[in-house]
Amino acid sequence: MNGSDPAVERGSGNVFADLDLPDADAHRLKAEIVSRIDAIVRQRGITQTDAARLLGLSQPDVSRLLRGDFRDYSLERLLRLLTRLGRDVDIVIRQRRSTTGGRLRIAASETV
Fold this sequence. Notes:
This protein is an all-alpha fold. It is 46% helix and 0% strand. It has helices at 15-18, 24-44, 48-55, 59-66, 75-84. α2 runs parallel beside α5 and α3 crosses α4 (59-66). The longest helix is centred in the N-terminal third of the chain and has 21 residues, at 24-44.
């Protein structure tokens, strides 16, 4: 270190938006869904091979997914993976709360 403090910039809460990626809200939502899938697999204490069988994927695909390589997965497909793990998925559409437009977000009624 050269003795000077590095500049710190507060993030928006969405790293994808901070990186100016297109469809940042969708990327964040997908990341949250994958995080929940990972938590369920860990909580159950099952192997990636067993998870693959449950999800209808190959073990290498499960490995890539859980490492954050979900670019090729649609939101719909990720939601279907949650249902295969025994979770109900409800989609709620409501009037926007801000003047800047609508947003995508996920809310869970449980931690895992």
